[in-house]
Design brief:
Protein name: Dihydrofolate reductase
Number of strands: 10
Low-confidence stretches: none
Strand order of the largest sheet: 5-4-3-6-1-7-10-9
Helix content: 25-40%
Strand content: 25-35%
Radius of gyration: 17 Å
Distance between the termini: 5 Å
Pfam family, one: RibD_C
Number of helices: 5
Organism: Pseudarthrobacter defluvii
Oligomer: single chain
Largest sheet: 8 strands, mixed
CATH architecture: 3-Layer(aba) Sandwich
């Protein structure tokens, strides 16, 4: 009925996304994470940085997040103190950027450029088992890694907004069918919902006799 989840390895891979209730990654004109990132959620983000992830991202996300991190470091933005700390802290985290348009060396500290096939590169990273991996935004990269069967955990933080008029970057367009088995859930600041799953990519709906 479906492909098996990613095999356990010394380098587990997590797809980590923030999302509106109607499935968008961002919305035109809304501040930050829809203006709803509270202190409990931001404190959790800081704690997560202690898990020694290597972040995987594409060129568009690199440009966006590097720009935000630089603005926060220079105090040239409207970020709160907690937001600024989370963004500037990303400079110290190892990052691998998959791009054919960027050039090395990258300006953002601790960023390594990878110009080859991302799926092959991540498969090798997992095989080498150098430490936990996590995507950072990068919707198309996350989709490719899931389809390839490389994802061990699929984590969403759902913000309580519907952005039917202003939503941008539909997250699940182009996805295969995926069964999700929940392994963790949590509420932040009384309104944000964390949902973490083990994903299984399906080749057909359950019970239809599809191979």
């Amino acid at each position: 009925m479906g492909a098996t989840p990613a095999e356990p390895s010394q380098a587990p891979l997590m797809v980590d996304l923030i999302i509106s209730l109607d499935g968008y990654a961002s919305a035109e004109g809304w501040p930050g994470w829809w203006g709803l990132e509270g202190p409990e959620y931001l404190a959790w983000l800081d704690q997560e940085s202690a898990n020694n992830y290597t972040f995987l991202l594409g060129a568009n996300t690199y440009r966006l997040m590097y720009g935000m991190s630089a603005q926060a470091a220079a105090n040239r933005s409207g970020f709160s103190e907690e937001e600024g700390a989370s963004l500037t802290g990303l400079s110290a985290v190892p990052k691998i950027v998959f791009s054919s348009s960027l050039q090395s060396p990258l300006d953002w500290p601790n960023s390594t450029l990878a110009t080859g096939d991302a799926v092959d590169a991540v498969r090798e990273l997992k095989r080498r088992g150098t430490g936990p991996l996590s995507t950072l935004g990068s919707i198309s990269l996350a989709r490719s890694l899931l389809v390839a069967g490389l994802v061990d955990r699929f984590r969403l933080v759902v913000f309580p907004v519907i952005t039917g008029a202003t939503g941008r970057e539909r997250i699940f367009d182009g996805y295969p069918d995926v069964r999700l088995d929940m392994v963790q859930s949590r509420t932040f600041d009384g309104r944000l919902q964390l949902l973490e799953y083990v994903p299984t990519v399906l080749t057909g709906p359950p019970g239809t006799g599809q191979p």
